[in-house]
Amino acid sequence: MLVCLKRGFGLFLFFTHEGRALMCNFEISFFFCKFDISVSIYLRMPRQARKQSVTAIYHVILRGMDKMSLFYDDNDRKLFLKQLKSQVCPDFEIYCYCLMTNHIHLLVKSNLLSHYMHHIAFVYAMWFNAKYHRKGYLFQDRFRSEGIETENYLIQCFRYILQNPVKAGICRQVSDYRWSSYRLYYNSSASFVNVGFIKNFFSDRIQFEKYLLERNQTSFLEYLSERQMRDERLREMLKALLRGRDIHTLAKDEQKMILRQMLRETDVELRQLARISGVSIGIIRYLNE
Known about the structure:
Layout: E1 2-6, E2 10-14, E3 21-30, E4 33-42, E5 57-63, H1 74-87, E6 93-99, E7 103-109, H2 113-131, E8 144-147, H3 151-167, H4 205-213, H5 226-229, H6 231-242, H7 252-265, H8 270-277, H9 281-288
Antiparallel strand pairs: 1-2, 3-4, 5-7, 5-8, 6-7
């Protein structure tokens, strides 16, 4: 990425990707100063295209560089939410969010996902670096995303995102965590989050709360951290069960028996087992049911 300053506060950025050019103009406020920024994105070098969702709904994760904290205080979190809110429009809807310490979960609907996510990340990183007098990248690589193709997967992913602070040991209940969209769904106040979609799944708040207490059995896009440390141990277990054979050459019944044994005897995530074994996530999910 090449960054050039041009008279006053005009800023031109050149990114490489697919040989196309994009232009956008926006304004950033740092403390008491306003910066008018013009951004040129020059797209040249090919990158692997994101898989498009038929529904245009995605589970998105933004990660801090080298697991660094994205928020040092509540004002940082408020600023990020303000920036998120500023992007909401018919082309970019927010269904759910959860701000963790070093990563962010979003459930969004958009046919222009990359455009809006890059803008959100860029503006927040500029503000964050100015506030804390730092330089360099704030976010790790590109944002990660996974398409949501069914209503069942949508509502389970919704629960997974809201349960993240509980799973991480930050709080005991979903309702205890301040920095998720949980409090917005049965609140009369206006919100930038699209809360209406949950009416398709719950007749009242009692059903909603009950559902959030249930444990998720499905694997979702995750923030990669501790599970990477377990890969070597799991590979060794799989190798021992295979006894020198290739899992793809086994009879289907034996293949299923080995995978079910790993699911039963370990706390392996479904997506992790798919990655290690080379078996599709769809088959792994089926075996886990």
